[in-house]
User: Fold this.
Amino acid sequence: MPSHNVALITGASRGIGKQLAVDFARRGYDVACLARSTAASPSKLPGTVDETVELVRQQGRRAFGLGCDLQSEEQLNAAVEQTYAEFGRVDVLINNAAIAIPGPTLPQPLRKWRLAVEININAPLALMKAVCPRMAAGGGGRVINMSSVAAVTPEFGRASYTVTKVALESLTQCLAYELAPTVAVNAVRIDVPIWTEGFVFTLPGMDTSDFEDPVIMTDVCDWLCRQPLDYTGQIVTIAALRAQGSVRPRTRAGDRRADRGA
Assistant:
């Protein structure tokens, strides 16, 4: 990754987004961190955007965090404006935030379906609308959309998540075509279970020690950022990149937590 670039990352208060924010900072990026959970308005889940910002600054890079409701186009546009005011550019946009609403689809109120659509597909689109024209005008950049193997393996009780991930992959390919050759738009179809604080909190009885360490997502995003801008419209998987030797071998989140005494 080149130094002194800027990454804008959603869902940065915990899990994959937090890991990416810190690791991009280690690679020389300044980071704009977006999340709904803040110190002033925390979630029941562990982690806030303020904590992530502090970790980024500990790497010697600039950072700011915004509590942002991804359902609000106005707030998303304001976040982009603040990012450009603070840093003057965005080189990498990572649409990481998502919501998975469990349970059978038909009995649920339609507002829950609309919520999944707003968070998982409309918010990434709104951010791409706000960022990508400026990226192109500034010489180019990259968008990385986080998808899931759920897009190709539907399961009971995950319809809104599956449908919106399918839509996100399709949107990735459509906008890759529209934004070529100056902005590369790719998606990561996460095809292995990855340890996150939220997963442990919501399913405390599950043994997650054998889940992948979230650092594997840094490897994937790092690889995408090193590809030429004409590498675009692709849906990449961890398994495929691992098979070609582009990311580290199998990781275990339990090993790292044990090393830290967790």
Q: What stands out?
A: Confidence is low (pLDDT under 50) at residues 258-262. Residues 110-137 form the longest helix (28 residues).
